Amino acid sequence: MIRGSCLCGSIQFEVEVVVGPFELCHCSRCRKASGSAFMASVGVRAAGFEYIAGREFVRRFELPVRDTPPAYSRVFCDRCGCVVPEPDPQTEVFEIAAGLLDDDPQLRPERHIMVDFKAPWTEFRAGELQQLDSSALRELRAEK
Questions:
Q1: What predicted TM-score, i.e. pTM, was given to this entire model?
Q2: Hey, what CATH class is 2-143 in?
Q3: Smallest Cα–Cα separation from 19: which of 56, 48, 40, 55?
Q4: N or C end: fewer C-beta atoms under 10 angstroms in the chain?
Q5: Which of 63, 110, 79 is nearest to 9 (CA)?
Q6: What Cα–Cα distance (Å) separates residue 16 from each residue in 5, 90, 103?
Q7: pLDDT, tens digit (0-9, with 9 covering 90-100), for 41-69
Q8: Closest Cα to residue 12, out of 47, 54, 66, 45?
Q9: Residue 15 has pLDDT above 80, yes or no
């Protein structure tokens, strides 16, 4: 099991395995939610996710639909404000912020996504990771 927690430790969880993808999202909503140049996220199986402590501190903030459903939501700890995971009951795999993991997920970042929305001060090194804009990401996801 891979353990994870919020900033204050009130919310603790475990996942059986991190399945990926491990992506660095540069969309404006992820940048604002993370307070950084990108949000690092990994895919985990909903069936292998379990809250160990603090489920009662989980809260959700919903932004309206921008282009297509679903709306953007941010799930967070109501004690420290840290983003936290919440499984989507309609999907087998859901994303969590990689920085929440206390143990090594045994995966490394695969690609930068939504790079057409990156902050103007963000620069990529040649040969680093794959870089996908929003249309390339839609194509990739449609293939799966």
A1: 0.86
A2: mainly beta
A3: 48
A4: C
A5: 79
A6: 15, 19, 12
A7: 999 999 999 999 999 999 998 877 766 66
A8: 54
A9: yes
Instruction: Name residue, tokens 């109501």.
Output: 78
Find out whether 76 and 83 touch, Cβ atoms under 8 Å. yes
Residue linked to tokens 């953007």: 72
Q: How far is CA 144 from the centre of its chain?
A: 19
Report the residue count for the chain.
144
Cβ–Cβ contacts within 10 Å for residue 119, how many? 12
Q: What is the DSSP string of the chain?
A: -EEEE-SSSSSEEEES-EEEEEEEE--HHHHHHHTSS-EEEEEEEGGGEEEEE-GGGEEEEEPPPSSSSSPPEEEEETTT--B-----TT-SEEEEEGGGBSS--S----EEE-GGG--TT----TTSSEEE-HHHHHHHHHH-
Per residue in 61-94, pLDDT (tens digit) is 887 776 666 667 789 999 999 999 988 878 899 9
